[in-house]
Amino acid sequence: MALRVDGELISDERFYREFLAVTGGMTPEQMQLTSPADFRQAQEVAERNVLRAVLLRQVADREGLAVTEQEIEEERRSVWGSAANQSCGRGITDEMEERAAVRKAERHLTRHVPRPSRREVEAIYRANPATFTLPERWLVSHIVRIAEDETERQAAMETLRLAAADLKRGKSFAAVAERYSDCKGGGGALGWISRGNMVAEFEENVLRLQPRKPSEIFETPFGLHIALVQDHKPAGLQPLQEIRADLARRIFDDRRQGVLEEALHAIFNGAQIEVASEPEHSVAHGRGIE
Questions:
Q1: Reduced to 3 DSSP states, what percent helix, strand and coil does the chain have, rounded to the nearest 5?
Q2: Burial class (CB in 10 A: 0-12, 13-18, 19+), 277
Q3: CB–CB of 1/271 below 8 Å?
């Protein structure tokens, strides 16, 4: 369906594109056949997404929040990662311009939201110790060779013996992982893990290691490994000084989101939204969008 929002015509083609985005490419006919209840929900989400973007862009227009070419390019990069990708054309530029305008409108509507004071951050930290308590955790890297049969297992063992020899000669674990591991990139880093994050065979061999001392070759259902514990932290409350900035940002973002939702509620209630007929052929005709 096409809608007129405060006098502006929004085509049914736009609602249809948003429906596809919401459903990961499923058309209305497909979703109506497989899950009528999910179809209705997806239709409502798509409609609200479009109306939200249009109404916020109209706020930017009314407030004179002009969008620069640099901001359009930043939006393009946030979507495609690079301006070199296939992301040109008038339609794409218009979409990126609206996205940038929506961001500006959101900042404008929340411009008076105060940032939390140090005392507020400390009070929330003290009042919610369970939220900021972490389990015992290990910073782990590994070298893995995948083996699905005995032949591959023997080959994996030989490769990891070469890797172990390089480690004994003093080569860095990251460099050895990049050379020998089937999972390259990041020097074999797995990041911080806690009990229950990995399969039992991995945890049994790794979580008892001394930091910065490579393990012997061991096996799990995923293959053969050499692992290294880079660091270890006991369970406990995260120190406030380590999370103060992140906590302050989360508090501010929550406040800002609350103010934005209130503003959007008022904007939706004050908007004149009506069904409209389009001068062009309806692209949603026969596609299940009514």
A1: 55, 15, 30
A2: exposed
A3: no
Task: Compute the chain's Rg from CA coordinates.
Answer: 27
Q: Where are the beta strands (DSSP E) in the chain?
A: 2-5, 8-10, 133-134, 137-145, 189-193, 218-220, 223-233, 236-237, 273-276
Amino acid at 200: A
Both tokens of residue 108? 């404008």
- The domains of the chain are located at 2-113+246-276, 136-234
d(CA 67, CA 111): 17
pTM: 0.68
In this structure, the number of other CB atoms found within 10 A of the CB of residue 248 comes to 17
Q: How far apart are CA 194 and CA 215, in angstroms?
A: 18
pLDDT in tens, 120-169: 999 999 999 999 999 999 999 999 999 989 999 999 999 999 999 999 99
At 45-79, the pLDDT tens digits run 999 999 999 999 999 999 999 999 999 888 888 87
Q: How far is CA 127 from the centre of its chain?
A: 29
The strand ranges marked E within 28-186 are 133-134, 137-145
Sign of the alpha-carbon dihedral angle for 132, 138, 141, 144: negative
Q: Which fold has domain 136-234?
A: Chitinase A; domain 3 (3.10.50)
**DSSP at 98:** H
